[in-house]
Amino acid sequence: MSFTCWAFIDFIWLFLALAFAFSLCILKLSRANVNYSNSKILCIFEDLIRYGKTKNDLRRGAFLRLFDVPKRWFFHFYIVSVIWNSFLIRHHINAVFFGVPYPIWLSDLSNALTNFCVQHENGKYNNNIRCCDQLSVLLIHLLLWVHSIRRLYECLFISVFSDGVIHIVQYCFGLAYYILLGLTVISTSSISQAGGSTENRYAQIHFSHFLGITMFIWASVHQNRCLTILANLRKENNGKVINMHHSIPVGDWFSLISSPHYFAELLIYISLSLTLGGWNLTWWLVVLYVLFNQALAAALCQEFYHKKFDSYPKCRCAFIPYLL
Ligand SMILES: NC(=O)c1ccc[n+]([C@@H]2O[C@H](COP(=O)([O-])OP(=O)(O)OC[C@H]3O[C@@H](n4cnc5c(N)ncnc54)[C@H](OP(=O)(O)O)[C@@H]3O)[C@@H](O)[C@H]2O)c1
């Protein structure tokens, strides 16, 4: 008999997931209890969780506005992600196909994050039971990289950003998020094995890879369509930007939910977990984090639409079709 302890990286993702789940609960509770509506602490809390259009109507003092940075800086996240993950993928490919070990500092960092134990009857610890095969890990790393490149392209060439803002804490968190995500992928593989394995990579091809990649493409196409619909609300047919208003989006998954691009984000992370085979605890914790993070953003977005538009379609759920 053996049992698995959690890795340090698992606790990080669980903590982040719970932080956003807790924020969502606080938000719902504050809406149910009007006594809190003028509280200063609630104002600071909302300043930290809102961004973009959902922050426009938040009444806050000049001091809190000092921490605003432009929301159009979103593309910085994807630049960091593309550069960082290109660097990691290069080392990953070298390790998987050419047996070149990772740099010591990267191995040490990964080992620190995966510091966990699987205790066997004889009392020894073994890390390998938690590791996915190298091909699956390389695949999700490439998918994550493709996702970042697409999002970078959308931020730079499709989306039309107004003068919306995000909090400097959210901005720093966004930068750190993509660094951590890359490290999480690296940590999912067995770095100690990466240098020496001679196993046939083709033998590692699995049905879950096809399932995950198909779902990834499907969700990415819909996310791109929905972000294009949002951008087109501010453009003429010839592509010229004509306003910076927020209007009611229609088409594609917008007929079912108010924030289909957030739902698609969740599906993209689920698809990565499926590509890994569907059994990796760390990646399901990443999915849990994305679920609560995007659910919070979607709840605020739904509130924004209901407040702003009397004619907003009542049948549209906020985040998950027919459910939430
Ligand atoms: N994985 C993560 O942790 C994470 C976290 C956050 C976001 N994301 C992803 O990043 C993507 C963008 O997220 P976001 O929160 O920036 O989305 P968003 O607030 O909906 O904004 C997307 C773009 O659409 C514009 N827009 C939004 N609603 C509009 C409306 N009603 N009318 C006209 N234009 C509108 C925004 O302009 P404004 O400049 O006016 O806002 C912005 O240019 C999403 O796909 C999301 O899933 C991922």
What is the quaternary state of this protein? single chain
Please state the CA-atom Rg, rounded to the nearest Å. 21 Å
Helix and strand run: EHHHEHHEHEHHHHH
Output mean pLDDT. 88
State the end-to-end distance.
Answer: 40 Å
Structure description:
By secondary structure, the protein is mostly helical. The protein has one domain (3-308). It is 60% helix and 3% strand. The chain has helices at 8-32, 40-49, 62-65, 74-98, 104-113, 134-158, 168-188, 191-194, 207-232, 260-275, 281-308; strands at residues 3-4, 68-70, 118-119, 165-167. α1 (8-32) runs parallel beside α11, α4 runs antiparallel to α6 (134-158) and α4 packs parallel to α7. The longest helix is centred in the last third of the chain and has 28 residues, at 281-308. The radius of gyration is 21 Å and the shape is globular. The two termini are 40 Å apart. It binds NADP nicotinamide-adenine-dinucleotide phosphate. NADP nicotinamide-adenine-dinucleotide phosphate (NAP) is lined by residues 52-53, 71, 74, 159-162, 164, 223, 230, 233-234, 246-247, 249, 261-262, 265, 290, 293-294, 297.
Offer a quick outline of the entry:
The chain has helices at residues 8-32, 40-49, 62-65, 74-98, 104-113, 134-158, 168-188, 191-194, 207-232, 260-275, 281-308; strands at residues 3-4, 68-70, 118-119, 165-167. It has 324 residues and is mainly α.
Which helices and strands, and how do they pair?
Elements: E1 3-4, H1 8-32, H2 40-49, H3 62-65, E2 68-70, H4 74-98, H5 104-113, E3 118-119, H6 134-158, E4 165-167, H7 168-188, H8 191-194, H9 207-232, H10 260-275, H11 281-308
Antiparallel strand pairs: 1-3, 2-4
Helix pairs in contact: 1-11, 4-6, 4-7, 5-7, 6-7, 6-9, 9-10, 10-11
